[in-house]
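Below is how a single chain appears once it has passed through the pipeline. First comes the sequence as given, then the structure the pipeline wrote out for it. We keep one example in the README because the format questions we get most often are answered faster by looking than by reading.
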Amino acid sequence: MRHFSFSRRRFLRDGTLLALSAPLWSQALAQPSRGDSAIHGVTPVSLRWLDGEVPAAFAGVTWGVPWPQGQVASDSGFQLRDAQQRDYPLQSWVLARWPDGSLKWSAHALGGEQPPGIGLALRPVSAITADLSHGVSEDDTDWTVDTGRIRCRIARSGRYLIDDVWQGDRLALTRARLVLRVQQGDEEADTLARHTYHSQIDRVEVEQKGSQRTVIALWGHHQQPGANRIPFVIRLYAYAGSASLRVVHTLIYDLDEARQQLAGIGLAFDVPLAGELHDRHVRFVSADGGVFAEAVRGLSGLRRDPGAGAIAAQRNGNATPPVAAFSPEVGKRLAYIPAFGCYRLTQHHPDGFQIHKRTSAGQGWVLAATGGRAAGVGYLGTPQGGIAFGVRHFWQSYPASLALDDAHRDSATVTLWLWYPWAEPMEMRGYHDVLGQENTAEQLEGLAITYEDYEPGFSTPQGIARTSELFIDVLSATPDNAHLARLAQRMQQPPLLVALPEDLARARAFGPLWSPARGDTPQRKQLEGQLAWYFERYQQEVEQRKWYGFWDFGDVMHTYDSDRHVWRYDVGGYAWDNSELSTDLWLWYYFLHSGRADVFRMAEAMTRHTGEVDVYHQGRFSPLGSRHNVRHWGDSAKQLRISTVANRRFLYYLTADERIGELLDEQVDGAQALATVLPGRKIGQVAPTDPHGVNLAFGTDWGAVAAAWLTAWERHGDSAQRERLLNSMQTLARQPHGFFTGSADFDPRSGRFQPAPAEQIGISHLSAVFGLTEICSELLDLLPDPDFARAWLDYCRLYNDPAALSAFIGKRVKKNNLAQGHARLTAFAAHRLDDASLAQRAWREFSGGDGGLVAAAGRLRHLTPPDVLAPIDEVAFDDGAPLSTNAVAQWGLAAIALLALLDEIPPSL
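Resulting structure:
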């Protein structure tokens, strides 16, 4: 007999019945003028700089803010005010709405006017006519963006991303284009050849034009006669009052990895130069702020001295005196001083860069400097102005390079190489052959020994993507070293405004399973310390294991090998984590909980990686993700649980990033891909007879579908997504055993499940650990349906109670795995049902550690050569268990949820 203390009356009391659909509101929110009255009863949101201090350099910022349900109308204006009651120009727009149509997330942009670091508050004000003034104009061939400090022309088609950039009457930059190099042939047969491709723009769209920010998107491919390769999406960001352009570069890999290799990809542009060669300056910045500073034609160190004034001016980037003022011994011999027109900064390893230079093409390279980590920021120009440029996460995403060519001529070329052509070409092939795994039985045997789900033809990178951020700053003079170091800091850690954790929690951003950190009891202090300890261990592991590289940066490894004192980087499914058991969610909820900038930066990098590299964006497997593997794309399990929107929406809502929004939209019809790529095809899953249907698991599959539809409904106000989502919730709840039925045939068009056989039971420890828990916790409030609420709370209270679960389904079940991680489900049921006994049980499940971390905190063991290659700190547990990212992520999510949901922590914890 079912024990269920949740009543329909209590459900209706606790959840507000909201309107069934939201209207489509204008994307632009009204902007306030000074003196507009605040909306009564709405508490302003306090803002802070993510990194805790006023940015050393600033070129505009975009951020997102959540609002409590029902408090802010979608047509409200907004006001940003500092502690001195000074207002700042603001551009605002809608990111998401609550079901009643009120504003849930708003986005905001500031131009080049930098606000202070303290006392910033954002408040909604009464609606007024929106100020949509902007600096964007168009004609038949081009878009022109005028920020007030620079003018950019962007062609509607053709080869160039940017035709030219002007600063006043000075032409600062021309012909920005993408460059691709592909290697093809047989190395052993000595038939290798390299081909160069150039960008070809297919479509240009102005995605946003407002008073503070303009976004232009360009879609295209790389082209040479008779061949197109590597599609791309480029987004150009320009802010009012700023001389900086942000470039977000996304490539989609489509080469045949067995026959072709990507041997170089970058962004190039030309820089007009005039004046004397000794007044042309080259700068590169190291990651610790040091500056390499030289001129194309150096004046210091010569056998003859040109004069102290000339050398000092050149060293400082200022105009040198006229040549006639040089000492005659130098002035008449300038032509004999070699002019170095070509420079290369190459980051060939995360701990090693080199700077080379040569006089011109065809001449030999001279080693100029070496170092550990470069910031990936450089400058080329004269005392009258030039271009600073940078690649974010430069050393982390090696092999990368900044190259300057022909700086001794009237026009130089700058190339920001995301993968430089002097490195080994990308190795994208599978790391082993078939190994005899021709059929399902053999593949399951392989899975049993290496944890790798291999299948011929599935280990392909075709369709994966990579997104990079680049910056171009137009400067009116050669910057001094301190100024350039500040620009480098901004390019590597772009400033971001964020709401305080308390304001995020007040708005119920991302649901009820987290709360701001507070250490007001010894038990809470203990848990807060353990949460920090585990995060810091992974932060340390990223560094000491060098989890860097173009295709790897952002991810972590899955399981540790205590015998070799390394992570299992070469053992099938134990290598790269690929979001397994919600590592992404652990980091994001820990950021919400702690507000720590370093947690945000790690979560951001992981979202960029897992949303692009671990997911297919075109081709046979699009838009599914790949399970954990030695190669990020190597596993044959192509699943929605990896590509789920649940992992990406945090970065979208906190930053309003358009590329992340594009990834969210890719997943809306993701369920349809399961018609041809069945997740359970090797364990008996059969496709429905309905040609439009798929067989969908209620946990890992439907959780991802629900996240995609919920997010699409909130973002776009599309009532069709709401209806599909509600249909799926209601028909899932009516299954014979609710969530414990496991799966059913599903129509992605309507969102309806077909009834499963009465005797069907499906219980998986993985169902609730890929975002289902978090999404369902929000759905109970957003789309209140009594049957669905009952079904979900049944699952939450029964999963970790085998006796009650056996009675519920009418069949004896054993204790389920991952009990510790599922303690947060028990806690959620306790919270919703106001059940003290369930609350106590949740703490016991959490502290017991079954299927997780028995010892909540490990210890560090320092190892030194010759036992290891280099000194490391290794996490060790008293029971000898290896460090597992699965266990840590689930422990972290459970700890954060229990701290949020349950007030009383047992003293014995």
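The longest strand covers residues 193-209.

See the next section for the split statistics.
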